[in-house]
Design brief:
- The chain has about 190 residues and is α+β, with helices and mostly antiparallel strands.
- It folds into 2 domains: about 1-70, Alpha-Beta Plaits (2-Layer Sandwich); about 75-165, no CATH class.
- It has 8 helices and 6 strands.
- The protein has helices spanning about 20-25, 50-55, 80-90, 105-115, 120-125, 135-145, 170-175, 180-190, and strands at about 1-10, 30-35, 35-40, 60-70, 95-100, 105.
Length: about 190
């Protein structure tokens, strides 16, 4: 569980509705309608991405009136289902998928099992991607795909489908460099 004590606020006198905030918001808390950005207080994780991207200085980060608790109770989800989904995505359940928020693979798996269908859904439920949002995107996408969800990045959004894992090493590289035991590691994981 993560505690969020801040929230993004929009200065309506400065906002031009350019949509940059909406395109970078990890939990999809920002929406633009009628040339004005709006913040969903139930989703905003105060990650500062909207603040950084706003060319008009229309976004500020302010203390919340009440803290927001974000997280998935993975203990309420079938442990075997979590284990199975993590293995399909080549992740260990206890592995950190987001170093910024210390979100575990089992929490992401639980969110997906409970109905998350996009990276934004996963973020809103777990808080993952509310830090740098670069390195955790690959594991989140792998987990969604392992669950059978087909994902296409929305136009103009900053999605980094980087996957820095053993599973992304091409077979010919594994064969060319047996001294690194890459095939052995893959076999051991699948044990």
């Amino acid at each position: 569980m993560k505690v969020v004590n801040y929230i993004s606020r929009i200065d309506e006198t400065k906002c031009t509705g350019c949509g940059r905030c909406e395109r970078v918001c990890p939990p999809a808390a920002m929406t633009v309608a009628q040339k004005l950005a709006r913040v969903d207080p139930e989703k905003c994780l105060a990650c500062n991405k909207c603040w950084h991207m706003c060319p008009e200085d229309a976004v500020s980060i302010e203390p919340r009136d009440e803290e927001l608790i974000v997280g998935v109770d993975f203990e309420a989800v079938d442990e075997a289902a979590i284990e199975s989904l993590c293995r399909k995505a080549h992740l260990f359940p206890e592995q950190f998928v987001c170093a910024c928020t210390l979100t575990l693979a089992k929490e992401v798996a639980a969110a997906i099992i409970l109905g998350a269908k996009t990276p934004e859904d996963v973020t809103a439920m777990t808080g993952v991607r509310s830090g740098c949002a670069i390195y955790c995107m690959g594991p989140v996408l792998r987990m969604l795909r392992a669950h059978g969800i087909k994902i296409e990045p929305p136009g103009g959004h900053r999605w980094y489908d980087l996957s820095l894992s053993l599973w992304d090493v091409p077979a010919d590289v594994c064969e060319k460099h047996p001294e690194y035991y890459l095939k052995d590691d893959q076999t051991e994981f699948n044990g």
